[in-house]
Amino acid sequence: MRQVLVTGFEPFDGERVNPSWEVVKKLNDLQLSGVNIVVRQLPCVFGKAIEALNSAIDEVDPLMVLCVGQAGGRVEISVERVAINVIDARIPDNAGQQPVDEVIVAEGPAAYFSLLPIKAVVSGLREAGIPAMVSQTAGTYVCNHVMYGLLHRLAQGNCKAVKGGFIHIPYLPEQAARHPGAASMSVNTVVKALELTIAIALHTEQDLAIAEGATH
């Protein structure tokens, strides 16, 4: 059976859990839309995260890769449009590294656009009653690092996967309880969102031509 690789991250920045992994691990071995989902946890460490992702791609040989990360403070499922070739870490990673203004791939392009039908995904999630948006920035931390690394790998054409991208998710409720005023989303809702995302991405060849831009 064809396979889809879905990744989440280990906890970071003092959090006891990372919602991306708490959700993603529930998808392991799920058969959906004619594919089998395989999940892997990535370290929240510059360099090692991309190495782990590439090893997983080599092992699984997926037809699509979906990476998921935590974005505490965001209120919706954020489907990322673009990854940029820069690391500018506001906080250290889990290995204590805090690079500033460094490139991810030397001589790599300034940016890569997602290879997912991002607007179709957002539209489908909203139709299912799940708050979602197209995000214009994946930040400059390990999530952007992984998204750029993924899209750079797919651009080389040396693996089966031709679709790939990144989604940020809000805190879980138990995390938001420790961050007064922060938004949250339940595990069950995010699981449903990822299942829908995978199904839509697998079966959509032409993205929707609808406005999902930002004015600031």
UniProtKB/TrEMBL annotation:
It is an enzyme of class 3 (hydrolase). One of its GO terms (biological process) is proteolysis. Its EC number is 3.4.19.3. The keyword ATP-binding does not apply. CDD domains: Peptidase_C15. SUPFAM superfamilies: Pyrrolidone carboxyl peptidase (pyroglutamate aminopeptidase). Homotetramer. Belongs to the peptidase C15 family. This is Pyrrolidone-carboxylate peptidase. It comes from Rouxiella aceris. The gene is pcp.
